[in-house]
């Protein structure tokens, strides 16, 4: 029986384990995870902190018991400490100190990512928080409950996690400030024409925005009291760092080929540079169809798909990933934004001779007076090849499903001209006869 070992049982690992156990017989699957829980949806963290959901129970969709029922041998709170890639053995230690040696025929690394921790003074002060694990969110919630003197919360990092947390803390009645070295929020996903709307939204809801500032130090006696940037010093009672994630490559960084940020380089079957070893989720690269090259995009959606792909290949069915576009969405109070592929800024940085077509209109005809909002759309394309490189949409209306079409367009390498006469239905309850997608594409030069 083929021995398969999976290290890491969060989103990527869970997808791989379930796919293998649901689809294939005669496999021996052993799972190791350092944590005590499986499948925590970090995306619900801000909703939980901000009391928009009742507790954390719904934030898990799998468990040790569910995997064991399907036939896996699951070791929780058992970090793998070392792998001998020549002998094909992993070495782990249980919580009570028992050492385990587990041989494998095929190994799946699903060790995920770790929060980036800036190397500055004061990081060990109390109330300096990170947001990754269930335990991190629980700690923040417990502190807010117990320490009634936490009034000012400073979020470092205005990416999607930082912005979601800013809303959450504001909903808890805190004075919230965001600090970021960038010029605006969500800089990786949206051009400034869109992030200006988000920043206005944050500002209108009372969140202080301090952009173009680099955090240099934290000060306090036992708890954090001040945050020092290259330009200012601010009082604070809690600092939450959301400045990005780095691949957790410690188990393979001396053996496997690495991407520039340390992620395990994988091919379209999720195989690493070692034929017996696959890597999935946040510890691995993705193939990015927008730039037509490998890239690092840490998202749960990519983790799940890469887990499915690896599972089939490990069990003998050849399956290639379709690649990704970095499709993402965010909702902050009543503003919805979705994007896929490259922003204009990123496209230019990647050397594309890129242009955009922008359009703004109501979702439905104006005679529909209720549940009708303006929608802003931008499509980024290559002026020479006409290939669609990215798309962004923003509205108070739920326009989220539109982005999937652009995601597919980028995956399939479509030109913007292919969308000009696309058959898009019209019904006043939903949209307009001259809808914004058609109009934006028609006006692309
Ligand atoms: C606050 C927050 C919000 C997010 N929101 C979204 C969202 O809305 N949409 C989205 O698509 N993505 C979102 N993400 C990103 C998403 O959570 C990650 O991309 C996803 O968790 C990656 O899954 P993974 O299984 O690859 O890695 P991880 O979730 O990092 O899991 C890795 C697992 O490996 C285990 N492990 C590591 N080392 C060892 C070892 N040596 N031995 C044993 N076990 C080990 C860990 O304990 C962990 O369980 C969010 C992330 C955060 C933190």
Account of the 3D structure:
With 445 residues, this protein is α/β, with parallel strands linked by helices. It folds into three domains: 2-40 and 57-113 and 246-314, FAD/NAD(P)-binding domain (3-Layer(bba) Sandwich); 117-243, FAD/NAD(P)-binding domain (3-Layer(bba) Sandwich), CATH 3.50.50.60; 337-442, Enolase-like, domain 1. The protein is built from ten helices and 25 strands. The chain has helices at 11-23, 45-49, 64-69, 134-146, 160-171, 192-204, 300-314, 344-349, 402-411, 436-442, and strands spanning 2-7, 27-32, 73-75, 80-84, 89-93, 99-103, 106-109, 113-115, 128-130, 152-156, 175-180, 208-211, 215-219, 226-229, 233-235, 238-241, 245-247, 277-279, 286-288, 293-295, 328-332, 335-341, 354-362, 374-382, 388-395. The strands form seven sheets. Strands 3-2-1-7-18 form a five-stranded parallel β-sheet. A five-stranded parallel β-sheet has the order 9-16-10-11-12, with helices on one face. It has a five-stranded antiparallel β-sheet with strand order 21-22-25-24-23, with helices on both faces. Strand 19 and strand 20 form a beta hairpin. The longest helix is centred in the last third of the chain and has 15 residues, at 300-314. The radius of gyration is 23 Å and the shape is globular. The model has no long low-confidence stretch (mean pLDDT 97). It binds flavin-adenine dinucleotide (FAD). Flavin-adenine dinucleotide is lined by residues 7-13, 32-35, 42-43, 45, 79-80, 110-113, 131-132, 161, 248, 251, 281-282, 298-301, 303.
């Amino acid at each position: 029986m083929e021995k398969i070992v999976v290290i890491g049982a969060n989103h990527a690992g869970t997808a791989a384990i379930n796919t293998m156990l649901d689809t294939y017989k005669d496999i021996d699957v052993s799972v190791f995870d350092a944590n005590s829980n499986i499948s925590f949806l970090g995306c619900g963290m801000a909703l939980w902190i901000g009391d928009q959901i009742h507790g954390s129970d719904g934030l898990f969709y799998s468990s040790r018991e569910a995997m064991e029922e399907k036939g896996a041998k699951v070791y929780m709170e058992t970090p793998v400490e070392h792998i001998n890639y020549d002998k094909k053995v992993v070495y782990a230690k249980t919580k009570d100190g028992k050492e385990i040696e587990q041989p494998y025929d095929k190994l799946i690394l699903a060790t995920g990512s770790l929060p980036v921790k800036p190397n500055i003074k004061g990081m060990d002060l109390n109330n300096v928080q990170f947001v990754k694990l269930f335990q991190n969110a629980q700690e923040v919630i417990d502190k807010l409950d117990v320490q009634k003197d936490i009034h000012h919360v400073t979020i470092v990092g205005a990416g999607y996690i930082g912005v979601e947390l800013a809303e959450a803390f504001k909903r808890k009645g805190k004075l919230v400030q965001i600090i970021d070295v960038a010029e605006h929020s969500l800089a990786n996903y949206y051009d400034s024409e869109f992030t200006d709307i988000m920043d206005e939204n944050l500002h209108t809801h009372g969140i202080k925005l301090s952009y173009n500032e680099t955090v240099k130090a934290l000060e306090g006696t036992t708890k954090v009291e001040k945050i020092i940037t290259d330009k200012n010093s601010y009082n604070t009672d809690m600092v939450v760092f959301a400045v990005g994630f780095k691949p957790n490559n410690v188990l393979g960084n001396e053996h496997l080929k690495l991407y520039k940020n340390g992620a395990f380089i994988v091919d379209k079957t999720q195989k690493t540079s070692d034929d017996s070893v696959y890597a999935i989720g946040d510890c691995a690269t993705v193939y990015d169809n927008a730039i037509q090259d490998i890239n690092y995009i840490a998202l749960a959606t990519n983790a799940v798909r890469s887990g499915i792909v690896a599972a089939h290949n490990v069990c003998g069915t050849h399956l290639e990933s379709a690649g990704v576009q970095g499709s993402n969405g965010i909702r902050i109070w009543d503003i919805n934004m979705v994007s896929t592929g490259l922003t204009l800024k990123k496209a230019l940085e990647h050397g594309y001779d890129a242009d955009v077509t922008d359009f703004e209109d109501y979702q439905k005809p104006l005679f529909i007076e209720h549940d009708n909002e303006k929608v802003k759309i931008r499509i980024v394309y290559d002026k020479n090849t006409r290939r669609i490189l990215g798309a962004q949409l923003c509205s108070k209306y739920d326009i989220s499903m539109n982005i999937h079409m652009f995601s597919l367009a980028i995956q399939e390498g479509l030109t913007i001209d292919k969308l000009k006469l696309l058959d898009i239905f019209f019904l006043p309850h939903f949209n307009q006869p001259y809808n914004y997608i058609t109009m934006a594409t028609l006006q692309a030069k």
